[in-house]
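re: ur question from earlier - yeah i can do the single chain one, its not a big deal. heres the input i used so u can compare w yours
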Amino acid sequence: MPNSKFQRDQRILLDKANMKYYRIENDVESKAVGRKYPQLECNNLVYAHAIPDFGPSKIKYNLSFNLVKGTKLTDALSTTAISASGFIISERLRTLLESYKLERHEFIPVEIIDGKQTHNYYFLHFYGLDMVHCLDYQQSEFHIIKWGFQDLGTKKFDSYESYQNYMKEFNEEYSLIAHLDCVVLKEEFNDLDVFSFPYFGNEVFISERLKQCLEDNHITGFSFEEKFQLYKVTDLLKL
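and the output i got, formated as tokens:
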């Protein structure tokens, strides 16, 4: 967002009107998930590594995990075996999510082995790039981090293409990571309840209404952090 006092005031007013979003991630507290992290040990890494970062799966997976001794069987289970964006979730959690608006996704069946018992879970795989194109790049702010965690400050881009060109130019010399500091969305954003911003970190965000549903239904295995307010171009124009 531009730095004028008027536009900083716009942020404050918009905070009251727009929906809050929270970062959602696997819980790491031992009281919630047990004494060890991650909770799962993969039995077939070839399949786990084959899940694509972008685009739906093109093969049938045979995913199986052992529940690590000393951990708890929660609705969301942690693993380090899958690099693609998503969560391993229970049937109960899948049923709840199907009533909400999620970005492009698929449910990949997963077998969880807990001693002599097996449980049917799913890998909720987020694979769309829609949110990248919903960003208003000229009004959003990006925080640039150089490999080695050197802070290069904030930057703006004219478009997704200008962001790509900037990253390509500098990544020839060293690796850069861009995180979103302030998010302004185009009108095309249709108030999703779960989404992420590919290329700007692996964080997944959920709406306040979905967070409330998960808490009301005592869904286990997640932690939440209030992250930011989202702004729409139409909201800015109304003020």
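Helices lie at 5-17, 30-33, 45-50, 91-97, 130-134, 160-171, 208-216, 233-238. not sure if urs matches, ping me
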